[in-house]
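COURSE: Structural Biology Practicum
ASSIGNMENT: Worksheet 4, Part C
STUDENT ID: 0417
INSTRUCTIONS: Below are two proteins. For each, the amino acid sequence is given first, followed by its structure token string. Answer the questions at the end about the second protein only.

PROTEIN I
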Amino acid sequence: MSHCSRLGGRALRATELRPHLTRAVAAARLSFHFAHAARSIARPATDKDAIHAGAASTADRAAFTSSSSASGSASSSGGTASAAEASTAPNSPQSSNTPPPPSSPLRRVASLLSSVIPDQAPTPPAMDPSIAQSRAFADPLALVAAEMTTLTNSIRALLGSADPTLDSAAKYYVQSQGKHIRPLLVLLMSKAVLRVPKADNLPDVYDIDLSISPLDILRDFNPARVISTIASNVSRVTSRRPPDADVIEPDTGILPSQRRLAEITEMIHAASLLHDDVIDDAELRRGSPSINLAFGNKMAILAGDFLLARASVALARLRNAEVTELISTVIANLVEGEVMQLKNTATEDATTGTATAATFEYYLEKTYLKTASLISKSCRSAAVLAGAREDFIENAYLYGRNIGMSFQLVDDLMDYTISEAELGKPAGADLQLGLATAPALFAWQKYPELGPMIRRKFSQPGDVERARLLVAQSDGVEQTRQLAKSYSDKAVQALAQFPDSAAKDALIDMTATVLNRRK
């Protein structure tokens, strides 16, 4: 007997029902996690300062200088405009989460889901009034819901190992509920560059699962992805036409290579978390025991290495030299940034009485290497895979760089403003680890006594408590917030030349989501 369900007055086979159920589940998740979809954001003022990787630029230092020169002011690098006053958002179009009509095959599915999804989502954080405008706040996740829903399972399939312990350890952070902001940005950028002007020489399109070398030479057995054919496992082009409707995945506007890039980006990020938690001797991650507590330091390090290895294999099979170079340097950047963080501050800070330009330059460079490098280069790679024209590739990079900087600055200020319950990890961990981030550096300008504490990494009894008090008494948190906003403004400006699209709007809205997040 064939398996079928009767919904909406007619019988549906299981294969027909599955897409409807997937969409319903995605819609329910979106309704819960993005309850503030009616909020609005402003289009920031123009700022054409382009900041590239490799060294913190004059614009970075100017941002700190302008922020610190006027206590609590809203000034930011590049001369961003004054905050726009909040205004009431217009009525938004009917949401996809609206209960389906009685004739819809989703009627019973939606009814079933309503019993397990809370009626009301948690109260969202207050929207920064300076980014409010009369424009409906879009739902970025809705545009790539199908890809994000399958993201975790796709990554887990790439990470299969015949060793059960390694298999579990490598997937430990992949299976937990993370923010997944990096793959989300890659997928949105992939949709945004779909209709931009293309380069003269478009990239070839390959089978992303096809090995380049013979499988018996690779000896890389993945029980989750058994490949039956071992003959002719050499590089072959499946299409030498530009990306078009025949190659782009149906109903998504995203190339298979771009989808795989999003998975690779999250794998590299997860690997960095495994290594970071060993270095930091962490005990909690996303509300659960950290990898080093669950599996021990040795297995945590090996699992991180395994993640990077599998990400590298998937990256090589994209068969795009520029993308391989971009993402490979991200791994080096992560290591370099971690080494900079171990040193904490610039060499010049050993003798200075207060934070200097060199202090902030060092901090910003570390922030780029540890966080913004992965986001910026993966956004650039998405544009490269699309065959976008060079100026759009550059702007994709600038968007990723600036939203990545904003993301980390907000992360640093949350360490002083958000509770452990909300963060899912110990609050105030940065000071406990001896790290001086932007709020403390800004406070140092007002309170020179922070200098010795920063240099000794808050190691003496009472240092952490005193430093937190001085940060609270200063405007360090607000200055950090304004600096984060200046980077968000520049991320929006980087998209100015992109054709209007829902994906472009979603990328703009993501700058507000990053700026106002609480976890």
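PROTEIN II
(use this one for the questions)
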Amino acid sequence: MKLQVQVYDERNRLTYCKIRLSLPQEPLTVYCKGEYEFELSPGEYRVEVYKGKLFTPAVVTVMIGEKNVVLQINLKEIVNTLRLGLYSFDAHSHVSRNPHSDTGTLEYASTIMRGEDFNFFFAGSPYDRETHLRDADPSGGGTIPYRQKYAAQLGEINTTSRFMLDIGNEIVKCRYGHMFLMNYDQMPPYSQYYDRSWDPWLFTKIGEEPDYLIAYPYEALRKERGPHSVAVAAHPTSWWPHNGEFISNIAATLGFELLAGSIDAMVIMGYDRDHRYYQELWYEALNQGYFLPGVAETDHTFDSAAREHLQFKTYTYADAFSLDALCEGVKAGRNLVSSGPILLLTVDGQQPGAVLKPKESEPFAIRMEAFRCCQAPISRIQLILNGQVHKELLLDQDHCEWNEILEISADSYLLAKCYDSAGNVAITNPVYIRNTPFVNRQFRSELTVQVTKRGQPAEGWYWIDEEPVKTPFSGELRCRIPVTSEVTIEVDGETQIVKLFEMDELQRIFKNLYFGAFNRDGRYTAGQVPAECYELARIRSLLSSPELLVRF
């Protein structure tokens, strides 16, 4: 017999959802557009219907006899985030884009994401062997932008005002870390910034570290990003042991990327609902005066049956339902991350991302509001000042409003965090209170280079990036440059290029992370890296006034 399940929202419209059907062997889980038909033997079945965590699940027991059964279910929304001006998204995933795959296609991946109540989905690079092999040869990737290649699928999927699909990518995967990029016109091959010699060597460590043969992360992002793109440092403390080897996905160059302006945000939620090491690294950067939005990631592989990472969402205040508006909101820090509940914060009426001036005699008015998800009531709300819990409220409520006043007269930041009794977490981005500029805004290096030839001071010319004008020097040159700039030095017709990223001391810091030297005593387990190991202050000091020697 047939069981037809029809799932509607509160306006009696068919709605995307997840259906779990109990079977004698094991439950069957499907995602659908609101209708699904099961072929079943007579008996009793339990039907569970979900749509993310902000709709109340429906659980129905149904008897199948000698006739077909139509089961109609209405889902009730707990909190309407769109009415709050919040749009949910994920930009780090892996979709095979393989027409031979049943589960890894853009269409099915979008069905899953709509069933989990995402509003924007940036479908990431493939993670299946067949597509990897096909795209491993750059000459076979073609020259058609992926948005154009998949224009028909994008047009068929993007037909509502509640969901939008775009082609995204974990664009950089190398020894220095992984970065994903959203809202850009991606050209094939998707893997052109993958450190292909590194991964095979990483799992064996036989021989010397292979040469680095691709663009540095900041170079790749500078080349590929558009005016409204967002670049994010993925899973910043991710590593694990494998047969005695240290396998790193750590964001080793975070301190450089922040000063370079090559990333717009970092991941603060992913893999775990309350990732202490992600958050402590984020607080370290914020405490040092950086403007740094925090986002969530699923890092979900759609060819996999696992679904636990789909709970991680970023919600962003956007002025319109568009890719550009969403991404501008992300870059402005107008975000919260959550594995379930919704948490709102205002300081003097200003939302996360706002920058306010310190006050000498008047306190700031702080307002927090939390909404439960379907799994449990809110159990705890924290007001966090400069990375430390300033005040905490314990409760057991579905909805809570909390008002505080706080005097702040120095550069600071405030954010809010909440928990529910099921272990879900939500964290807002900060409201900043500052008199001084953010240190990663328009950062410049005061560079000094001593130039010698055969051990003696040399004379010649230098120029910065693509400058048409060459400047003469004698023995020494000084210039003020962005950390991403290249300085070309010419002596007697011979040239050398200076890249600050290649400074020996910086590379030592990076290697300490991606080789796991920080964990020689085995104190830390997979995914744990202390924030001080990133040496953010040391990197800033090195890049403020670097002094180099170039020999000809």
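ANSWER KEY EXCERPT:
Q1: The mean pLDDT is 95.
Q2: Residues 203 and 244 are 9 Å apart (CA to CA).
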